[in-house]
């Protein structure tokens, strides 16, 4: 289960690089009691800050503890929602999402959705609301989600359900990718 974009564990996450998350908080997340309590985790912050890494790490931890985990990007999710009636593959994917204990939706709202897409997304969130936990990652603040979802009523309904039982974590600082990027130039000054 899973289909993670990469396999990176929580042990590989360097907390000293990420001031906005404490060891205590990470330990708490790692215990995964929030999955039993149907809490959602919302990971916000600019690109390259470690949102996907943390979500994968938590997903791997959840699998180790026997949970059913499904990882999907928002782009793939919208595509699967729209094609589930006509595509067996999309249908299987959606079934796995609907039966998972933890659904990781990566890169929420990077693209504007039309009314039909926003509706399909709302229905999924509503279905998951009382049966599973969701980890969402986004580089947009929830107050900006409305613009991308279009309809204010749907946005409010989605946000209500997502935020009702949720821990919102704002990651900040410099991009880890930028700081640790490989260079083709030698370090000579
Ligand atoms: P985001 O999803 O926020 O854009 P990623 O999680 O994809 O960022 O992180 C970009 C790269 O930097 C990944 O290879 C990730 O493993 C690494 N990375 C980011 N933050 C950390 C960190 N605190 N410790 C170790 N690696 C990190
Ligand atoms: Mg990411």
Q: Which short descriptors sum up this protein?
A:
189 residues; alpha/beta; Rossmann fold; 5-stranded parallel beta sheet; 5 strands; 46% helix; globular; binds adenosine-5'-diphosphate; binds magnesium ion
Description:
This protein has one domain (21-177): Rossmann fold (3-Layer(aba) Sandwich). 46% of the residues lie in helices and 14% in strands. It has 9 helices and 5 strands. A 5-stranded parallel β-sheet has the order 2-3-4-1-5, with helices on both faces. Helix 4 (74-83) crosses helix 5 and helix 7 packs antiparallel against helix 8 (152-164). The radius of gyration is 17 Å and the shape is globular. It starts with 22 loop residues before the first helix and ends in a 10-residue tail after the last helix. Magnesium ion binds at residues 51-52, 106-107, 137.
Secondary structure elements and pairings:
Layout lengths: L22 H9 L1 H4 L3 E5 L6 H14 L4 E5 H10 L4 H11 L3 E5 L8 H14 L4 E6 L3 H8 L2 H13 L1 E5 L5 H4 L10
Parallel strand pairs: 1-4, 1-5, 2-3, 3-4
Helix pairs in contact: 4-5, 6-8, 7-8
Summary, kept brief:
With 189 residues, the protein is an alpha/beta fold. The chain is built from 9 helices and 5 strands; from the N terminus they run ααβαβααβαβααβα.
Give the distance, in angstroms, between the N- and C-terminal Cα atoms: 48 Å
CATH topology: Rossmann fold
Rounded mean pLDDT is: 91
| Number of structurally distinct domains | 1
Q: Number of DSSP strands?
A: 5
Q: Which band does the percent of strand residues land in?
A: 5-15%
Structural class: alpha/beta
